[in-house]
Task: structure prediction
Amino acid sequence: MSFPSERTPAALEGIRVLDFSRMLPGPWCTQMLGDLGADVIKIEQPGIGDLGRHNSPNFKCDSVYFNTVNLNKRSLALDLWQAEDREVALSLMDEADVVVETFRVGVTERMGLDYATVKQRNPGVIYCSVTGFGQSGPLSSIPGHDLVVQAVSGVMGVGGADAPPVPAFQAGDYAAASYAAMGIMAALHRRTATGIGAYLDVSMFDALFSMTNIVAGSALARAAGNHMTPPMELWGGNPRYCTYQTRDQRAVAVSLLEARIWTHFCNVIGRPDLINAEEGPQDRHSQHGSRAQLYRDALRDLCLSRDRDELVAWMMENNVPIVPVYSPDEAMAQPHVRSRGLIQWVAHPSEGRIPVLANPLAASGLTAGQRRPAPALGEHNEALLDELRPGVPQS
Result:
């Protein structure tokens, strides 16, 4: 990944964000804003902090998880149930451009830190609430963890009801974080033109559900009255879009959807008998009907005939999209990750140099450059309290 040769202002320089969020969706969103140049102040509970600080694995002492979603932030420890500390938070909100919070529905009202209160003091504020299921609706009181959000979104139901697996990726968390970041930046852009602030009710469920157009495709067709259309096959039923085991007990992912690519592959492996001259674009995401078993057997036998890396090298030489199924360690070590600069090393005051996942927008010149490490709990209390205008209680 190459970087611009000249220093240009980061996209959000001059924007101040107050981050009352914990765990993943809020912190990942605010880290993105910090990467883009915003001054992000992370408000944490004294003595405990963001619960993500306690998630393993660790580098030497500190959580990898916490240190990869809280870069470019300053930490201020405040007990928001105490009047004095709450007044400090409100004073910071008076000057903030953006507030992000992930409390359960109703908590900010009980604290006196809700949008209505903050808007009276700071009419142009962009206030973003990130929850599992939103501020309203039958599920709004349920704590919003990724697993339950994915379960009721339909994402986990595509494979049937027989013991669906626990997801390997926190899709609900990152969907909400992405929508929150997009919404905040859109609201900031509108405020520049109109001076109007915004309240953003960002739900993990809403965000993920909005991305299920493929998962929900058949349900949408049935809702419109079409009960006969076949589903788009992406879940292992298409033998040409599936994973297979190799001779050395590893696995590869096969993505031979288009007829042109399939024909090329068949010629590479010397199996022109597998080419179907009648194949059309409607077959691309199908199970391939009566030919499915023929294709599956051929692919299974080919993959079992060679070790993973040998097979992949052969396919790569011929531009055939059959690639290895990597472990996280293998994925990090692959040459493509190095060539794109997707691992960044950050100097940490107690851990030394630690690796973090790079922001892919860095190459576009939109970010603030070298990132700062995640802060220690309350690390910036003194500096931030000194910045407050005279008369604010010092805790």
Summary: Residues 171-194 form the longest helix (24 residues). The mean pLDDT is 94. The radius of gyration is 25 Å. Residues 80 and 188 are 26 Å apart (CA to CA).
